[in-house]
Amino acid sequence: MDKPAPRRVTIVDVARHAQVSTTAVSKVLRNAYGASPAMRTKVQQAIAELGYRPSAAARGLRGQTYTIGVMLPELRNLFFADILDGITAQLGDSDYQVLLAPGCNGEKAEARVIDAMIDRSMDGLVLIAPVSAKKRLNEVAGNVPTVVVGRHGSSPNHDSVTDDDIAGAALVVDHLVSLGHRRIAHIEHHETDRVRLTEMPNAQRARGYRDAMIAHGLEDEIDIASTSYTQQGGYLGAQQLLARPVRPTAIFAGADVVALGALEAIAEAGLTVPGDISVAGYDNSALAAFGPISLTSVDQDGRQMGANAARLLVDRIGQRDRRTAQITLSPTLVVRRTTAAR
Amino acid sequence: MDKPAPRRVTIVDVARHAQVSTTAVSKVLRNAYGASPAMRTKVQQAIAELGYRPSAAARGLRGQTYTIGVMLPELRNLFFADILDGITAQLGDSDYQVLLAPGCNGEKAEARVIDAMIDRSMDGLVLIAPVSAKKRLNEVAGNVPTVVVGRHGSSPNHDSVTDDDIAGAALVVDHLVSLGHRRIAHIEHHETDRVRLTEMPNAQRARGYRDAMIAHGLEDEIDIASTSYTQQGGYLGAQQLLARPVRPTAIFAGADVVALGALEAIAEAGLTVPGDISVAGYDNSALAAFGPISLTSVDQDGRQMGANAARLLVDRIGQRDRRTAQITLSPTLVVRRTTAAR
DNA sequence: GGTGATGTGGGTAACGTTTTCCAAATGTTT
DNA sequence: AAACATTTGGAAAACGTTACCCACATCACC
């Protein structure tokens, strides 16, 4: 029953078995300079024979842990899953292992998770749509290589990958205008913090909506319901908009889940989509693509964003003092059955 | 610009600042025996003043890392997110931090992730619906405290938390029979491996379906389309079933996503739900609850499962030699608008 | 006033790597 | 042939904690 707990194979065992020093084994493990091909094969064979695996804890004490931490606000958001796919695909079978914290909402939870990742000596961090103060992000990025995804604004300490949310919103407005719509309303995520007001995607989408409406000479038709990026928020936002003296003929929801809520409210009001009213979302999540829903939506290519983030991060781990980069990707519009000519 | 890289605060700094030994600080950190209240407050103050945070890497080398690893096959499955919620809720603000690997499909990816977690000296593992060989799971559980969620069968090495899938399938069949249905078909996830054939939830659901049909004297009506637990699988499965000489009047899909695919195929065939045909799913995911879909589904209470798994795991970390436990939770049926009397 | 039991605190050796040297051997240039 | 550069390999000191012991003081009890 109680086997004598077979001690884990260590680098010392490997060294002894291969009749070399532990230093030599370490060099082979890290592909470091100073090991001849002969030595390399000899050590690798010993590693295979003993089934040796390096302890990340011990490694972390001196060097790298080969672990990359990903923080995201919400696991249920399918767009974030795409970003993750991109990250893991890019990292492929490099030595890095990706670990993520379960969704963390709010600045406090975010701080806890980031601390936890730093405590665990992660080699790099990918922060997806963080809400923390800019100062805090810069501090973090000063300690550990960091890439921020989905938040606008540049930093001297961390790289950024964002989608061009202003362009995305414009795509929707352009599309609806070309279908003959003029009363185009928007449901936004209510934002109070001043910095986030410029940096968060939701704010950028609202701004893109405004700008595009103005560009089409529709400034008098601008109509925004300010709720939140949730299904509930979409439901309430749409209710508000439908209660207007002059009902909008199209609603641009800032996110797909918001559009779903809006669809629900519209159906409850006895109206049809797109007959009475057109609806567009943002994110092109699996929900939007789902046949019975078939929502017109803006596609952000999360995979691409994730892949870029991972590339930048590995880059920075290798070269911590290089200049920071900001990558902005262009969204595309996927037209489906919830938008139609009026 | 280049600040002199402010060395991290260590336990030694804290000890010096509080004028005690490092041992004393360590004891306070771990709430270990042998520290007076006076010492405790003194050390805690020093910790706060210096902003000290223990290094998980160093801790892992001797003791615990206060990290729990969660492995799940697929991030996009909302049911798994519920389980995770349960885990984190149960762990609350204990000292443990949950980290999870991005979805890993297949035995090979699973092995990699589990190894990675062991390499990182995690204190405990929660494996959600693992497909690895039973032998492998036992090995793993012999090395590190482990709880397996969503896989039937018991083990002397690890605890288990499962939903009673047989009962769940029976709930659906009973419900449909009580509505007057007799030709009730099932879409299952095709399984080949012999062990998994008894242990995986999909196999249990298929078995529960069969058993319940027989219990109602409907053995001649048993009709199974064997595809996969995906939307595509549901689509194809439903197409098969609809092409039967005598069409089923109800379809029990083994998972909500499968039901979605089935709904799509049914709509394409020009039939209505539940007018022409009733459909039920399994998992009661957010998709099922979504108004326009409103799918009758079996609810597993993932949060409850996760909470139980976390409790068992922390238990076992504290007491590694206690007997293993198997917890089985009873599912409930949530009746919505996709099932009706025939 | 011994004799244990109990409470309180610390010294020191692990833990398993990587890093920083250094030495010897080998190759290359003058 | 001397001087120097490069390659190859290893010894030993970190890294920051915890586990294991031991010492001392205090207290209760015969």
UniProtKB/TrEMBL annotation, chains A, B:
Domain HTH lacI-type: start-end pairs: 9-63
Key word DNA-binding present: yes
PROSITE patterns cross-referenced by the UniProt entry: HTH_LACI_1, HTH_LACI_2
Keywords of this entry: DNA-binding, Transcription, Transcription regulation
Pfam families: LacI (PF00356), Peripla_BP_3 (PF13377)
MF term (GO), any: transcription cis-regulatory region binding
UniProt cross-references to PANTHER family, sorted A to Z: HTH-TYPE TRANSCRIPTIONAL REGULATOR GALS, LACI-RELATED TRANSCRIPTIONAL REPRESSOR
Protein's recorded name: LacI family transcriptional regulator
Organism listed in the record: Actinoplanes lutulentus
